[in-house]
Amino acid sequence: MSPTPQFLPHIASMTGYLPGEQPRDSNTIKLNTNENPYPASPLVMGRLRAAIGEGLRRYPDAAATGIRQRLSALFNLPIEQFLVGNGSDELLNVAVRCFAGAGDRVAFACPSYPYYQKLIDLQAAQTITVEFGDDYQLPESLAKADAVLTFVANPNSPSGTATSSAKLDDIASQVGGILVVDEAYVDFSGTGALDLVRRHDNVIIMRTLSKSFSLAGMRIGFCAASAGVIAGMWKVKEHYNLNSLSQIAAEAALDDIGWMQTNAKRIISTRGRLVTSLRQLGFHIWDSEANFVLARAPSDNDAGRLYAKLKERGILVRYFPDDPRLTDCLRITIGTDNEIDRLLEELKRLL
Ligand SMILES: Cc1ncc(COP(=O)(O)O)c(C=O)c1O
Fold this sequence. Notes:
Number of strands: 12
Helix content: 25-40%
Radius of gyration: 21 Å
Oligomer: single chain
Strand order of the largest sheet: 2-8-7-6-5-3-4
Bound molecules: pyridoxal-5'-phosphate
Structural class: alpha/beta
């Protein structure tokens, strides 16, 4: 008989990350994983179609040079200060593997992006969480957590709330270790802390093309940091981490920034309308600077029931039954105006 596989104890004892549902049925109104309801730029589609051919037998550019050149021009930083990843999830993973070993302290304010916890568990590192208050302002104590690495999702998920760059600047000076600012939703907000990498060698800014650029399926993320930090992270990333088609899509998307900005504006405008309507229906909504809102159900309503009833009617939102802080809330991605109208109609019926 062959021996039972023995996982490392910290892997055996952890639970895996549970991604949001991706239903096969294309009729579902999908407001659960913060995707963009609008398609990517036609330039992306055109260049992808043209790229499907004989060239795919080759490995991609391991340095993703075309993307990094564009990022360098866009943000006015040397190309050595950018690293590109298979989604920003890969770069979050690389950052943790670079800086946090077994037993090291890694901090974040919660509730936030659940993947941080999984990455810490994978390293057998020590999780230091600081609870957000009900206003979701970043707790002062986060900077004093004595961590080798601190995550700040800005805007935060699931609350959508944002922290000013000035405050992040202070935190970067106070933390002893690395500060990762995860800006997955930054294009829907008035914030953006990329400039911090000009002043702080311990700051890594993470961004993604999954949300504002409508390219979640292509898995493209990037980060900016000091050249020294990027050179170290480079050693840890998988060498051909970004496939050739994703590189072509990212280059085209960055060549048509206006397309992304127009869609981001539409989403921000729909968000304003959704927030007003949900508040009229009695929901508590935190001020969101992202492409989703966190909605606390009116007091005599059960968020779990609303989630299930909406799902029965073909509308999928995100419900977090396992987090006691969030069991009375729904996280709703901003869809098209029509999708949001459908959602509001159903909610009116259900309440
Ligand atoms: C806060 C936050 N960071 C990072 C990610 C991952 O994005 P990507 O698709 O680039 O891996 C997400 C995805 O939902 C997110 O919510």
